[in-house]
Amino acid sequence: MGDHDVSPNPKGSFRKFLEQLSGAGKAIGVLTSGGDAQGMNAAVRAVVRMGIYVGAKVYFIYEGYQGMVDGGSNIVEADWESVSSILQVGGTIIGSARCKDFRSREGRLKAAHNLLQLGITNLCVIGGDGSLTGANIFRKEWSGLLEELAREGKINTEEVQKHGYLNVVGMVGSIDNDFCGTDMTIGTDSALHRIIEVVDAIMTTAQSHQRTFVLEVMGRHCGYLALVSALACGADWVFLPESPPEEGWQENMCIKLSENRARKKRLNIIIVAEGAIDTQNKAITSEQIKELVVTQLGYDTRVTILGHVQRGGTPSAFDRILASRMGVEAVVALLQATPETPACVVSLSGNQAVRLPLMECVQMTQEVQKAMDERRFKDAVQLRGRSFENNLNTYKRLAIKLPDSQIPKSNCNVGIVNVGAPAAGMNAAVRAAVRVGIADGHKVFAVYDGFEGFAKGQVKEIGWADVGGWTGQGGSILGTKRTLPGKYLEDIATQMRTHGINALLIIGGFEAYLGLLELSAAREKHKEFCVPMVMVPATVSNNVPGSDFSIGADTALNTITDMCDRIKQSASGTKRRVFIIETMGGYCGYLANMGALAAGADAAYIFEEPFDIRDLQSNVEHLTEKMKTTIQRGLVLRNESCSENYTTDFIYQLYSEEGKGVFDCRKNVLGHMQQGGAPSPFDRNFGTKISARAMQWISTKLKEPAGRGKRFVSDDSVCVLGISKRNLLFQPVAELKEETDFVHRIPKEQWWLKLRPLMKILAKYKASFEVSDAGQLEPMQPRGPEEHATI
């Protein structure tokens, strides 16, 4: 935290890191172009700070390419403070414009001249595929443009030699998530937040009046927003450009809507992407759909067009972290570039930052459009990537129930139970599991109130319609308890026998993991536990071994970020004030660390990185220095169990004493608000997909040659399903035991610790940053047969 390096690398690594990556004598220009997206500012902030940090000069290029062509006051050197307080602001503070001039060679010649006057030969472009293509053309023409400028006598030959090539790195900022090669573009998650807020609000009024709502969301050529929001709110029907409805959809849709009404559902939600088309490439508009519902069914129907609301508002925690990681990675990529390096995009795959060849991504993105124009819709869906295809398949399975007569019965009973503390998204997970279970021909039994309820016989069959409308509900509708099964083994075994339970799905946190271990250890004594058992991680703490993410952590992170934004606002009003905020998480520092990154905090104290009085002292000195600048406020996060003796009160009192006369101190304990609230789009989507996948695994296990009736005794029949790096993995609990610190209830290895230095660098501390996993360009697409974990 202070100057002595406490990152996982040994001392002196910071110096080595700067030698590897010196920006001395280099100039970087950063611009945002095309449509704006929430999170662009976080990316700009990261580029500026990382650039300055490694010794480069960084320039703002205002108003996109237009500013580059016009030059003059549009290109301005940025300093550390220029990007203060912009992390929580939507849009882009450096402006964006559509630029005709840059499309002509004369325009690009002017732009090149303007950049050369400041020695800028590194460009970081944040925008959509059009903006990135423009940057690539500029890069290819660079030496030709320089020669032309030299011929016109605008620059001398020495400059041509010195600035001989242009490096370009792109980041995709687009709310549509329409760029191939990246799992999530900057702004997509925030746009989903806006859509889901609206859908949640509309649902309450639609419920009152038994109305049908047609919601139009953005996405002229890409149905990602429509698809994921339909998945996240359990919409009745969705229209996408990539996957038009089959001929005769009008009738099918009306049947579906009236069936839902017959099941006592008081409202219908239909989501339409603005670019929706039918199989003949004719537009399907929201008004058309409304007309259809009114004339065919006579339902009271309303249209809501969300429009630019989706681009607005504050960026979500996910987008801030994504953009900050990409911004830092972009600077590293620019400094490592050589004249031979092709232009690249920094992107996210699973939760790994990767670099991809820019033009290949752009070509693939254009391929999708071509496939749609030529009515090759299957290809279009596949080109969008595995995540899109998975979303579509999951949506179809969960939205449309086949008549019972068409579902082959498996004669298996599957139990579902929630264990541990409540986490937002648990209900979405239960809904997905119940529906996939029923679609696979099983009877599904809900267990109420955790293992305790299980022992008492609170077990009831649950149907398709029983879980309608569950995705948007926070907490746990089934009820959840922290109690472990150990002391109830007899009773639970009896209940398993009574209800003939052939498999068990457990949704919960660390207690669920411990419970799974106890049940699997009891197999020798109780044959009832010799069935497939799988756990889906759901806890705000994100401390379950075997998964990088758990359901509920994203919602909690957004709550923390939101609170920190408000607190920072209050602090900047009073000036010279430092806030100490205590977050949840048990011994796991995930929420404190990621919250600090998303809220732009000065420090985060966590258990995984021991700290002592010298660190506290150096943090106080750091804040004292900061108060001399224009940024007169401080934010410090502390995980609730990071240290037995350095409590929140202790740190608050120490800061108050040491900061006397320079700053005053306040403290805030966020507490249980982190467990509540409506689940974020990420948690709804993640909970739905991971839980549906867990139920598919159960079905596969039960279909094995001697599936039903045989005893499952092998380790691979008791698993945790999680995301690890880029893949969805089922890991036997027996193997995960080795990777667990049971005393502190955390995994021994945690991926997010390598983001610690990132937070410190952006807060102006010295830290060595592990340069991306390979730092190499990755080939595009075809990845092996393993399951790609995209969210």
TrEMBL record:
GO terms for molecular function: 6-phosphofructokinase activity; AMP binding; ATP binding; fructose-6-phosphate binding; identical protein binding; metal ion binding; monosaccharide binding. Allosterically activated by ADP, AMP, or fructose 2,6-bisphosphate, and allosterically inhibited by ATP or citrate. Pathway: Carbohydrate degradation; glycolysis; D-glyceraldehyde 3-phosphate and glycerone phosphate from D-glucose: step 3/4. Signal peptide: none annotated. GO terms for cellular component: 6-phosphofructokinase complex; membrane. Pfam families: PFK. Its cofactor is Mg(2+). It catalyses: beta-D-fructose 6-phosphate + ATP = beta-D-fructose 1,6-bisphosphate + ADP + H(+). Its main location: cytoplasm. The active site is at D176 (proton acceptor). Residues 413-791 are annotated as: C-terminal regulatory PFK domain 2. It is found in: Cytoplasm. GO terms for biological process: canonical glycolysis; fructose 1,6-bisphosphate metabolic process; fructose 6-phosphate metabolic process. ATP binds at G35, R98, C99, G128, D129, G130, S131. Catalyzes the phosphorylation of D-fructose 6-phosphate to fructose 1,6-bisphosphate by ATP, the first committing step of glycolysis. This is ATP-dependent 6-phosphofructokinase. It comes from Lipotes vexillifer. The gene is PFKP.
